[in-house]
Every structure is written in C-alpha cells, then in structure tokens.
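Many introductory courses stop at the sequence. We go one step further.
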Amino acid sequence: MKTYIVGGWVRDRLLEQDGRKPPHTGDRDWVVVGSSPEEMLALGYKPVGRDFPVFLHPQTGEEYALARTERKSAPGYRGFVVHAAPDVSLEQDLQRRDLTINAMALDEQERLIDPHQGHADLRRRILQHVGPAFVEDPVRILRLARFAARFPDFWQEIARGLMEDQPARMIEVLADTGLLARLAPELVFSSAVLAALNRCAQHGAPLAVRVAVLASCAASSDGLRACLERLRADTDSSQLARLLFDVRADLHSATTARELASVLERADALRRAPRFAQLLAAFAALEGPGVERWLAAAAAASAVDAGAIAARVGPDPAAIAQAVAAARRDAIAATIATDH
C-alpha cells in the first residue's frame, strides 16, 4: 500500500514554489495504490464515498481515495463505470483526470510524479486536457473556465487559436461547450462573422485583424470594451477592434469627400497608415470588396503638402489646420471625380 498527494493541492504547492500564489494551507487529497476497501476499514479509515471508495483518515480527517479508472457508460455527469482495485496504478488514476496541471502527484518523500508534463504547462500557463475527459464529461469545461480566470495569460491561448488555419472552429467549440458564453457574453456570433474570421486566415491576416472581426459582433461599445478587458486582449488588437466597431457603419456609407475625410481623421489614417490598412482588411473580411476607394482617399489626403500650406497661411495653428483639412477634402473630391 502506497499513498500519494494528488490534484489541486499539488498544483497550488507548485504555484507557491514558483512565487505565483500565497502559501497554501488547504486539506490534501490522497490516492491509495495497492489497497482495498477491506484493508482501509481494518486500518481505521472511515468510508464516505457513495460512488467510489473514499475514506477519511482516522487522525487527520483528510480524504484518501483508492486508485481507480473510469469508463464512460451513459450520458450525464454520473454516467461512468468505476474500477477501483489494488492493481490500479497511480499512472492509471492520473490518466482519468481533466487537465495536465491536475494530473500530478507527490510521493511520501514529496517527489513529483508528473507523467503528463503538468508542471511545464503550469509554468507556461497552458490549460491542456489529459485525455477524452472533455468529450466524456462536458461539465468539466466549466472547471476550465474557472481555471482560466486564474491565469493572466489565458489570452495567449485564445490568440494562438485565432491564428490557426480554421479559427472559426475554435469559436464553435467554445460556443458548443458553453465556455464562450462565460468568457465573452457580450459577443453574439453569426455564421457571417465566423466565415469572415476564416477569410482572415486564408489571407494571412495578423492577430489584430482577426480580433477586430471577432469582436465586431459585440452588442454595444461598452460591452466590447468589457469583453476585451476580461480577455486581457493585447493593446493593438483592442484598439483596432474598438476602432472598427466605431467606424464600420461609416466605412460602408460614406460617399462625399467631407464624409471620407472625417472617417480618415477619426481613424488617424494618415499618421497610422499600417493600422488603417489593418482596419480596411478587417472591414473587407466582413463586408467584401470596396476598400479601394478608401485606399485612394487616404493616398490623396497624404499627398497634400501640409508644410507648404503652413508656410503660405502663416503662424495661426487653427488657420493652418483648416487650410490643410480643406486641401485634403479637395484632393479626395478630385479622386472621387476621377473614379466616376
């Protein structure tokens, strides 16, 4: 008979050792290998498990569970066949657990037993499942949501998924499991948005463009901001997502030189040309062709010689700004007339 500390206590102890968690004082959970219910009772342990053999230590009151395997037999949380016997190994018991960071053990000399590299995942702040537990018991997704809240770098995993070849598939899986509703309740996805997300991948769009497309289905500007903050999205992605949300309707409807110039100014298109290009890429993924007029308008406005205008108008900053704005509108108007 051998006993091992397992699960969350081990995980939290390692976080404590890495300086990422206050000292842990909670009760330990133990797995017993090589024993039977009869032996546990003979040693004075008190049985408390209804669905599988769990006992309380006669002195400490801590839980000791016989090593076991589980096999899915029916739908639902309790639809499992449990096998607990002296021949079940520690590795088999750890194999049935949900996440690698929960599938670690300490032996009686406090040596770490980590067959699924959970400690490495913990250090890299990765939540990775051990086996088919999430298919067999989708309720465990809710545990994943809770663990995700503990890891400030959870956004990195979302970002990696968005950069895959089929990013919409990740969103569909998160939605099907209920995790998406917990992480981003402000977003209301449609097939059009998911298709646009995959188009971004087909064109090799950077992360910020994909995030902007993903976030375009927010119900409100405040909801979008709250969602991005909760996910801890990076600054570039957050800024582009908010900008697209603010100007998308005008990108679609602006027709006059004044309207186009206004959008270019709001988007800071001339000073931040690369970001404006990303904005148009996100818009094109959602709306289809039609960004050429915006590229032409931005090029025309950029060609205006603001320095020459300032030298001609004089030292008044307000007068210079007005003259430059008027010249840019004229340049855009000329471009529009040429296109027609």
